[in-house]
């Protein structure tokens, strides 16, 4: 598996994208309701027992940050819950640990690991005990090599609590010529986020991010996204 966020600059761009494209956050309420429902149904066997929530491809911690805000607003408890975030990128894990939500700080831990090898993650070894697993924002699409998605699903069954454990996977429409109406809606939403101004980095003095227009093309079953201008190698650039 390749690390798509191989520098701290890309991690900050990820956070900027979450702010600019609000539709990337539409699964927040789904995960909130899933947590509330499953947490209420799970009987804890004593003070040492915990409800375990695992967020796959956690990025910089968006799912747990939003969950913390929603739990505070709704007054729902988060005690006796262990929140584990897993990401392949060391830079993402480092950034997530810098942004621990205060409302959940007693029970959140971000760790580096692979979605296709959950059995190797120390925190997941032992009897299968994950109550709720999320794979947010269509990120399962990063498992693009043949057999990787199936490998993840097989690994998930090894760590989910038998009979009651559940995994919630966001499947996001990206590109399909046969679904013209959905493609048009997506293009309109992406156009809304195509800002032309430079964006100064909040983390790295002197760094400015600049976004170009986005085009998309399809070759067989593969979809490609990229900038319009010739010579651009990345959708986002920094200068």
Automatic annotation (TrEMBL):
SUPFAM superfamilies (UniProt xref): S-adenosyl-L-methionine-dependent methyltransferases (SSF53335)
Name listed for the protein in its UniProt record: Methyltransferase domain-containing protein
Organism: Penicillium hetheringtonii
Methyltransferase domain sequence ranges: 52-179
């Amino acid at each position: 598996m390749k690390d798509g966020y191989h520098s701290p600059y890309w991690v900050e761009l990820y956070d900027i994208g979450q702010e600019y494209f609000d539709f990337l956050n539409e699964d927040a309420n789904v995960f909130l309701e899933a947590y509330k429902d499953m947490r209420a149904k799970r009987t804890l066997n004593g003070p040492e027992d915990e409800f375990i929530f695992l967020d796959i491809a956690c990025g910089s911690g968006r799912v747990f940050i939003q969950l913390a805000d929603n739990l505070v607003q709704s007054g729902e408890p988060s005690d006796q819950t262990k929140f584990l975030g897993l990401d392949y990128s060391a830079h993402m894990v480092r950034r997530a640990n810098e942004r621990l939500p205060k409302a959940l700080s007693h029970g959140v831990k971000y760790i580096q690991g692979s979605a296709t090898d959950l059995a190797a993650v120390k925190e997941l070894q032992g009897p299968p005990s994950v109550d709720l697993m999320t794979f947010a924002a269509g990120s399962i699409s990063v498992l693009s090599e043949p057999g990787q998605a199936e490998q993840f699903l097989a690994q998930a069954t090894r760590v989910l609590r038998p009979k009651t454990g559940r995994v919630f996977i966001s499947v996001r429409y990206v590109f399909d010529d046969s679904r013209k109406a959905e493609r048009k809606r997506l293009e309109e939403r992406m156009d809304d986020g195509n800002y032309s101004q430079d964006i100064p980095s909040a983390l790295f003095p002197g760094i400015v991010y600049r976004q170009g227009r986005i085009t998309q093309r399809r070759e067989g079953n593969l979809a490609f996204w990229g900038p319009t201008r010739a010579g651009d190698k990345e959708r986002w650039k920094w200068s």
